[in-house]
Amino acid sequence: MRLVLLANCRSLGKRLKSSRMATNHLVTQVPTHAKRVLSLYKKSLRCLRDHFPEIPEYRYHAAFIRKMFDDTKDIKDFMEADRRCKIAESQLKTYMHAFPRKFYNLKNTWHPMEKAQYPEYFAKREIRKREFLESWEKKYRDPEGSTS
């Protein structure tokens, strides 16, 4: 059953790579153990950052997390490494902060006073935005016309 699912994922990945649409949000491959561990490390550091907003405290505890990951990097038995990874992922879920930081897209949040200080920059910026949108429309628009 698993091999069939993997084969379906691979064929889906090939089809998605050939399509013109951006499909970064779709998972097309099974992550390797190394990628799982790296993702776990990054998530644990982000969780730690939520719990310790001051940099010195965060760095102190981040050193301990790095040591825990370094201690387990030389495990040769894959089953043991996978078991430890699953335990660490479940621990991370229990220690998640109640209100994690969210990263917002703040590209177009300029105050009018800031725009008034740099009028040439923002005039060029508006022209470039318009040109980008026009080129995107020309490249990716629906050839039959939009049906809304």
Keywords:
148 residues, mainly alpha, 3 domains, 0% strand, disordered N terminus
Question: Any overview of this molecule?
Answer:
- The chain has three domains: 30 residues, no CATH class; 73 residues, no CATH class; 36 residues.
- 67% of the residues lie in helices and 0% in strands.
- The protein is mainly α and 148 residues long.
- The N terminus is likely disordered.
SSE topology:
Blueprint: H1 2-18, H2 33-51, H3 55-71, H4 78-95, H5 112-117, H6 119-140
Helix pairs in contact: 2-3, 2-4
How would you summarize this macromolecular structure in one to three sentences?
This is NADH dehydrogenase [ubiquinone] 1 beta subcomplex subunit 9. This protein has 148 residues and is mainly alpha-helical. Helices cover 67% and strands 0% of the residues.
The strand count comes to: 0
> What is the radius of gyration computed over CA atoms, rounded to a whole number of angstroms?
23 Å
Structural class call reads mainly alpha
Number of helices: 6
Quote the beta fraction.
under 5%
Average pLDDT over all residues: 81
Largest sheet: none
The first-to-last residue Cα distance is 41 Å
Helix content: 55-70%
